[in-house]
Records
---
Amino acid sequence: MKQFKKIIPSLLLLGVLSLSYRSAELRRFYISGRAQGTTYHITYYAADSLLTRSMIDSIFDQVDSSLSLYKPYSLVNRFNTSAEAVKMDRHMRKVVKAALETSRITGGIFDMTVFPLTNAWGFGPAGQQPLPDSAAVRNLLTCIGSDKIHIKGNWLYKTKPCVQLDPNGIAQGYAVDLVADKLEALRIHNYLVELGGELRVKGRKQPSGQKMSIGIEAPGENDFEPVMEQVIYLDKGAVTTSGNYRRYHETNGKRRSHLLDPRTGYPISNELISVTIVAPDAMTADALDNALMGMGLQHALRFIEKRPALAAHFIYHRPDGSVTDTMSSRFKRLLKP
Amino acid sequence: MDRRHFLEMTGLLSGVLMLSPATLLAHREDAIRIGIIGCGDRGQGIMQMMASLKEQYAITAICDILDFRLEAAAKLAPAKTYKDYRQLLDAKDVDAVVVATSLHMHYAIAADAIRAGKSVYLEKTMTYNIPEAQELVKLCARYTGQILAVGHQYRYTPLYFKVKEMISKGYLGDVTQIDCRWDRNWNWRRPVPTGYADEQINWRMYKRYSGGLPAELLSHQMDFINWAFDTHPDEVMGTGGIDHFNDGRETYDNVQVLLRYKEKGMIGNFGATCGNAHEGYIFKIKGTKGMVSLLPDKGVFYPEEAAKKELQTVDGVSGATRLEWNTDGGISIVNEKMQDGTWYALKEFYNTVKTGTQPVSNVKTGATTAVCVHLANEAIFSHKILSWKPAYNF
């Protein structure tokens, strides 16, 4: 018993020592949940659990209030129903500016004013509709184009009342960036943020010091059996994927992609099945992935190779119908751990 | 609209539109001409489903011993009506029949139909007892030109095929437990119209007509386990009683059976009560790597922690709409919206009749499940543990 008494203090001391040692170490924290109609997960390495769920919820709530088509009170819905203009908040200003820039560099394949088409083809909040005929499409095209909106101070104007915005191709990426900004503000420098398959990564896994690995999902047969087409290793940047293999409508055996070409007014139909973009931030990647889907493989590859900050991976149909993949030169370098 | 009215109206229309009634009634040439025997809830449900499958089916005859049922069914399809199924079986304009009668009539009608040269879509459970199941298997072996499909319709949905595939590919690991329930909180009775006897309408309450809850409900889940694992139980034990609705019924309103699958190392718990509806339908298949939870049209896979890590080999996944975990840690097994099981079953019945191939739910699998149901009922009523016999291997 005497001996035992001696042991206890030393054990306690050991415990205290190990605790204090541990607190200096970076620990892994993991938060997951639902937002924007999908799921998110955040992994970060820090000495303590600095990022809370309420901080994350607050970020997603702000984005929803500004940019969600599914919230009747959102700013974007107010713009869409307004005759002329709304006063933007900082989220809308950032996203609209980025959208206009993306529209410019992609020659209008990406265009945030695509919303009337989104609705007409049954991919909007109203759900499936009778398919539009060519006259209806022509008519809708008169409401579409980045030249039909302009920014003046904090106000966003439209040239005609029917001009409406669809932020879905860009808002998710923007939300991911906001969470990353929050982590940076908390002085967390090793993290992975994922929302609906769009990711932003920085730093390394701790304590191993390994880069984060990101699987690029391929259209697999079963959801319970995800197929990784490629795995890339990244210590900084964003990865987003756009594809038509899960979201589509079908009539008489003919599939219609949810990705619409704002220039023609019709669903995009080319050899591409999915495009994955690596870019410095998620908003850029998110806006570009849809645009590249619309460009077709050759044009998209040239577009990426010309821009040193970008890398891309493509899954596509060969003319004989078989499925294969290819990637840009910078994407290839990311395959090494 | 009754038949006379219908003919009058079509006559009227033909005068106006220069169409003969025959044209109006015309269906695609390769549609199967169907006779419906038994026009209760299930028979009429099948008729309505067939109305949406016009290229496959034309209902040319309907039969029921109860007048009000026959009248109701006649409003659904302009078909010839029969009170005696044997006369329907003699009809030349019937290629195949649906048998949706009370259970005790299944064997007699199905056997007569096969002998009359008709293919048969026979509602579950296949037969009232084990000897009838054995006889029907023997009979079908002699009449190879016709199809006999058993209406375990869930079996035909893509979801249940997928789950069978998951099991055979080992996604669930070693399955040791199966939990099934099919509960409700009402007396499970239909209103009896004036002039009819209770046993004519509520035949499910009477032992001489029905196998009760195990036959009418739990047979679907027992059938799926037999099929998905290519097995049958080796031992059956059970209990039950008339525990809440003591209203003159003979079949039990509360049952529980335990099926031991020795070769597969599994225990199946199958229960049904008329005294609580909170959980309703439960179908859970539990293995060392994960559990599948099934509803008739929805399925979720819950990987065990270790298997989850295997699925998440990377730190993050980028995909168009990537693998989505439910809030409760499950993965949806199929994402497209499922049709009703009957829709798939009837499509498959059409294909098998046209091509002469055996349906997945056929006389042999139907017999295996019928044996399970009867052993379950015998165990419930006799309080004995019953064993599978070699004579039950079909």
---
Amino acid sequence: MPFDTLPARSGLGLKAQHYAQIIAEKPELGFFEVHAENYMGEGGPPHRYLAAICEHYPLSLHGVGLSIGGEQPLDRDHLFRLRALVERYRPASFSEHLAWSSHDEGYLNDLLPVPYTPKTLDRVVAHIDEVQQILGRRMLLENPSTYVLFEESTIDEVAFLAAIAERTGCGLLLDVNNVMVSAVNHRLDPIAYIDRFPVHHVGEIHLAGYDETTDDAGERLLIDAHGSRVRPDVFELYRYTIAHTGALPTLIEWDNNVPAFDVLMDEVRLVDEVLDGTLNRRLAS
Amino acid sequence: MTSQHQFIRALTDPAQPVPVGLVSPRGTADTKRFAVYRNNVHVSLVGAIAARFPVTRQLVGEEFFTGMARLYVGQNKPRGPVLLHYGDSFPDFIGQFPPAAGLPYLPDLARLEAAWTETYNAADAAVLMAADLNTIAGDALAKLDLALAPSTRLVRSSFPVGSLWSAHQTTPVTIPALSGSECVLLTRPQAEVRLTIIPPAAFTFLKAIEQGRNLGRAAEAVLADFPDFDPGAALVGLAGLGVFAALDKEHVDV
């Protein structure tokens, strides 16, 4: 039976090396998330395992290749593949990124940044309208992590995302690690970003670990790496966010150097403590 | 204004400067910041190739593989966002890559790995069971057109690439003798991919069936080159490996 909404619990990215353990042990977990593009093969073990896992857990379908911020029209074939996947698995949530990844030269497999101007706002709004129309459902749009700024930008990122949500009716996916990465990289205050974020549109939160390097001037440059535990400052920002928003479905993303499943479950327990804590505070008040 | 075309040109050519209009919070062009995007593109695409060709990577080592894959990725961007079959032309690229010339079996080994992914992701379909052949009336069997299952792949090499691949599925790896040709069959009988080294006669038989010959004509084609070929035994053995698609209803005696 399909699940209609993601529960306000912690979830994990589903990795092929953990399929068998998950099916055998059925760990206590709010939901699983998969990258849509990894399930666009016609058949075989990935679909068999995903179908089995969807019998026990709500599914979040997370696209990485739609290129919603692209200058070019959306790839219709890809949208139809996505629709087929949505119809097959009836996920509780579908989300994508405020980014672009495709151009004439091909697909670049990275989430590239978009300038924030009235013109790019119109383009992104039109693309999201098209996605929601073809999929026949509301989507969530994720805030990006970025390493450069565009001189031409005239709208700040939070206002840009809020305007998209207002105009398209889409929800937002608040990636707290991305907030920290972009805030440090662009010398912004992450708390102020959360305070201004239109939290009533948020349908899911993402957490992940970042890496760290320096830029040409030797200043801190954070990289959205998804290859480690959630860093302490991001976890603090998450506590702050949840105190502000109330409990929300929260995904731990770990896509590179994927550890043993039990390590991921340790992260899950830390997130659940925060989510339980906010419930307890509300019950006591 | 920075167009996405300019962005990509600078992204894919490290000799190009950071595109005008992309800045750090100090308002300056910053090479190391832009390099994060360059690096992400390369690392993620090289990672996709490494994930599809794990034995090729083991055979040449991490450093050699990454260098070779970076060159490939630089010249061959994926056409779309589904990367399951990205790298179809990587085996041919290896065959043209002079530093790999000392490992003549490497392109075929990579071809086998590319085929393995195709078998893994192929459409689910019912397969012909050996017992199904009993439902075919005697004289109809020779005229029967069988289709290969969507997951069936055939790889022939002048090198023992099936044995070489199999040797890398366990640790420690014991490299087999690297001489002698091999015919390799990939199927997905019980949901998981299965690799079987088959005799050249069986390979020729399957190729004839794949080309649309009925069972009788396919068997004749094999017997011309392999007089000892036993088509009945081959058919039962191959069906047991899940090679053939299930029969259409019209072929089945009810």
---
Amino acid sequence: MTTADTDPTAVPGVVEPEIGEELLSVNNLTKHFPIRRGLLQRQVGAVQAVDGLDFTVTKGETLSLVGESGCGKTTTGRLLTRLLEPSDGRIVFEGRDITHMSEGKMRPLRRDVQMIFQDPYGSLNPRHTVGKIVGAPFKLQKVQTENGVKKAVQELLELVGLSPEHYNRYPHEFSGGQRQRIGIARTLALRPKLIVADEPVSALDVSIQAQVVNLLEDLQEEFDLTYVMIAHDLSVVRHVSDRVAVMYLGKIVELADRVSLYEKPMHPYTLALLSAVPIPDTARKSKRERIRLVGDVPSPINPPPACRFHTRCWKAQDICKVVEPPLIQLAPGHQSACHFPENATPEQEATAMKAAETNPGRDSVKA
Amino acid sequence: MPGTVITYIVRRLIAAIGLLIIVSAITFSIFYLVPRWAGASPETLANRYVGRAATEETVKLTAERLGLYDPIAVQYWNWAKGVVVGAEYDYGAGVERCPAPCLGYSFITKQPVWPELLDRIPVTLSLAAGASILWLVFGVAIGVLSALRRGSIFDRAAMTVALAGVSLPIFFTGLISLAFFSYRLGWTKPGGTFVPLTDNPVLWAQALILPWITLAFLFSAQYARLTRAGMLETMNEDFIRTARAKGLKERNVVVQHGLRGALTPILTIFGLDVGLLLGGAVLTEKTFSLPGLGKYAVDGIVANDLPKILGVTLVAAVFIVLANLIVDLLYAVVDPRVRAK
Amino acid sequence: MTNDNAFLSVRDLRVHFPTDDGLVKSVDGLSFDLERGKTLGIVGESGSGKSVTSLSIMGLHKGGSARISGEVLLDGQELVSSSSEEVRLLRGKRMAMIFQDPLSAMHPYYTVGHQIIEAYRVHNNVSKAVAKKHAIEMLDRVGIPQPDKRVDAYPHQFSGGMRQRAMIAMALSCDPDLLIADEPTTALDVTVQAQILDLIRDLQSEFNSAVIIITHDLGVVAELADHIQVMYAGRAIEYGTAEDIFDRPQHPYTWGLLGSMPRIDRERTERLIPIKGTPPSLINVPKGCAFNPRCNYAHLNGGASETERPELLDSGAGHMVACHLSPQERQKAWETDIKPKL
């Protein structure tokens, strides 16, 4: 715990990270939603939405969480922004443990961590003007602005590519892409350090989507923003991310930098996911190796034991049903949770095997 | 699944009993406290029981026997005990047994409340049953036609009449129709001539036809508007497009797919309305002088006759709670998605 | 674009909706042909008219407020001028449709089996028992496990992918000659999308039907379609084989779509190249070429794009494009400006 500078406004215990240093770290992050049944509403089980995540986010990067519906990526985003209370684990932001921080103590922190939502219309109050929507964070956080809130809001509107004259208009007067810009302007009002963006472009048409993606990139560069991007579109993710975490049934199965994840995926699920995406290229169509997963994602209420992917995995063997593969580093910056990784050298295969023997997995440890 | 259904019903019934206790306790407190705040003593309350000519001593004795000196909680407890196991009243001249469910004796008429209620339930039941069938059929039919011919002359006319129906109070429409159909044209019997169905079905219907129509007019208007809104929404659903894409006849699309979807919320409101009416259609019964629960309640309130008021309140609450439960169970029958929960 | 073998022929189709704000020209002069056994992909963004086109072919805009003109010939029978009843008898039987969101497209109160049986019995005079047997066969055919049990399940008891399979079973129950799939995989997860696309492909080769697949996802059409039609503001602006569209696109709007699209199959370090501006209002469609306000090349043709609407013309070997630019200008722009940045 060192306070690096003598900034009088700095909160004690806060470490202001530089670009490339750790901004956020997450340990064993878990969220179980209890299921209650019967006369006395006893808890009979839990939806294991997020189950023991470990990852860090460094300042200035974009980390994407990808996976199919029910993998827990949205829940994770809500845990990071503390819209949901974690059941277990630790979230550390700038050196402070914010896992169970009270609402009052969280308030200054809410300036630093902001969220962008998928549905640009649903997240904007239709009865408020753009000026009021974008200016709301100033009022909520009682922030003093130099030339008044209106000026600040108009600057924000210009920043996201809207006209300052839009100040007095209402959300319904805008197209989907413009509404998402309004949402982004609101998010930027308090100059956050971390933005959790939940499917920020998936409701938009492809040409508009490109505009918003470029905007997010420009803003990141200008303000040293850090993004945690939650997305299902693997093409968009490849374009915007520095690192990617692939989730399956509440767990991270692979976490790697963009290039090695897309070029040399090690977890079979990642491989299947990537090969399932249709590619707009006729030449590659016939050449591509296709992996077709059978069946559906199992229920997060009773996820399969040990490796949760073993029920749909073509490489699964007996050990996959008994021992949970830990998420271990197999190459620099490339973590994977699989006993039989893809694209692996013999040494990497051996490492994966050995990890399974020495670390019998969290499930067994708990038992 | 049956196991969970039974658990569900049991849970609902337990909740219902809790609700009945709360409702009766609140009613009890109101009608117990209000006269006392207004300055009434146990003696003045007992006075109503024994009549003006009684001696002071008799009054005191009566007040004591009725438990009017007891604190409110004890009085409520005794009343509630009477409902569950019955009660015994000692009038000096001998002990009178009031079997469960004992709702006490009217302060005014000295008659036990429960048998009086039993006499009045069929009247209210007849009124509610006839009216609800009428308004359901007409309201839904008009609503569906309006939705399908949205913007047409029929739609606009129907919705204007419906608006009038919702806004006009029942004593207004009731008195007008009484004046016109009964007194002027002589087509129907005037009020106050209720005949039980089992005695003479024709006279029964004749006495009730005007109240039915009056009540149904009010409710049809509401139901037509609700059905219209529901149908407009449902006919825009994706599954309607699918039904058309299959090549179904438009009539089947409307009835089997559209109406089936639109009726579910109406069913809920219907159940609650019928439950509410069974507790007494106060204005209608009063307007047409029908000796039902509503009129009984009004008479009780006017005379500050606590046992009557409590009795009607309890019966009405039971009807509403039961209607609620039945609606929720029916919901699960109609909508398979509810069953899963 | 006349084709004697065409099973479906659309000629100068126009679908206009009168509204309080003015006439919405959702589809405004669209023509194309489709043969049996072939798949046509219709690509476009929201408001391009792709869904309205499919609903008009199915006759689902009949009887509403839409003003429809032009011709839709299904196996020689003209549908626009046919009565609602005549078209209804073809719907579900000779042409069928599957929709984007299978959850909302199925009636929540009826079992999946009931809904398939209903579709079958409208056009086939058989008993319920026979129809149920057929429904179970269809569910089996589209890959639903334990079809004899699942036939009695309700839509909400199915997963998203299973529901879309059931929708396909329903659409194919009467063995239609034309299947229209409107964004069939947009609501599905990517691994499930792959399963459904495979299924549509397999079933097409088995039933030899004509398929129209409507989507905003260029990847999906690349996987499935023999021919692709790109739509903008109610008209086709480019038509060709998948190779034509992806390897040598001719229209600046198509370039814009390709440039806007992030790639999953290669490292693309260049920024995305969005199309400037927003799609036009369908009430005030720009004069001339509807794309001209957003086009980077509109200045090259001496203002023609602002006054004159370009026709969809064959630029060689069936690759059609509606653009005022000369083939040389298009070739140059594609080779130098666009292709290197993708």
---
Amino acid sequence: MRNVVNGVLRRDLRIDTRTPQVVPGMALFSISAFVVFHFALQQRSVSGNLAAGVLWVTLLLAAVLGIARQFVADREEGGFEGFLLAPVDRTALLVAKATSLFLFLIALEIVAVPAFLIMLLGPSPQEFWRLLLALALADLGIAFVGTLVGALAVQSRARDLLVPLLALPLLIPLLIGAVKISAPVFGGPVAAARWPWVLALYDLVFGLVAYAVFDFLLED
Amino acid sequence: MYGTRLRALSIATLITLTGGFALAAFYAPEDADQGFMQKILYVHVPLAIVALCGFVFAAVCAIQHLRTGESRWDLRSYVAIHMSLIFGAAVLITGSIWARASWGHWWVWDEPTLVSFLIVFLLYATYQPLRFSIEDRDKQGRYASVFAITAGAFVPLNFLAVRMAQSYTHPRVFATANGGLEPRMKVAFYVCLLGMALLYATLWKYEMTSKNTSAQIKRLRRRLAGDEGALPRRSASPTLEST
């Protein structure tokens, strides 16, 4: 299983390093979104809850872009058929895809978070670890939900329409938690200490759901 | 033969629901704060509870579908979600009317149950577009079931997160609905809840009967016409195997 996961993961990473599509796309989108927010809100800098909201909405929409691209190559170039023909555990594809999405999200945040701090944030960030905690927990959840949604939508003809429609409602609890945890970093109010646990519960539940149902998305 | 107990079910629904509304209107006392407007509780809350139970029922049917691979479970799940969506639209409309009457706004964000319900409704509204955009029938059913299970797991998590997100607890009739509701109100409420559940069951059964009957007609027509009558039409609703 570990070999299969490694193989698929390395293939996905190699595809995106040779023909960079997903990560540069998401990163560019996030910076454009910050510019849009600047003009839409008519503010030079944001702080507190507003700052957390702007950052997380941007990250979420950028993640939706990545989710939509996740399985496209597999569908168009016959990756699914190849995988199904191989005598390997199908869960390996879920693990590999979720890991690659997780890594893509980290790459996105390495660009988007500093850009946000420079371009839009007013007060200097405090207690930066809160943001890191929120990012780690949210990325894990987005990786599971995103892989599931990407696999669900890729076989349909209205893929680009369905991915945001499916992913955004599913990610709302995650967004609530992430905003609550990271608001103090930008000078917002400190939320209750149980929010990281709620996010961890969300990650756990969707990890298990994805593990349970993913096989049925591959049968043919 | 389909729909054998449909008539009895319809009559029971009619009686219970009429009785429940009569109890709510005449037997239950008027609320001291909200007056007559509070009576919408007897429509809004049962609708919401029944719609959510319908979503859970759909998830259970979807699990059965994935386990057994029989398309009748897919049909059950499909019809349950369809009915719950209709009930859900009614919940949002009645909730909005209630909010307008008691707080003066058509939509209030600090009513966590209503907000959660909207999110759940938005998610399930994608169910039919998802089905419609997958042409392969077998795949359509399987993907729809995966969706129904995921969404079913999402419902409780979403309610938890949205409720926790409120910085303060709004004074709510709900909070008293479980604790200190007047006994006469409670009786009316439970009769209405039962009536709403029966209404859901009746409508569910009606649609199941209709789907089964039209599937049978299609089978018979195909047998009459040979293969030419078997032109499949693209649709979101599941087809039963021709047995």
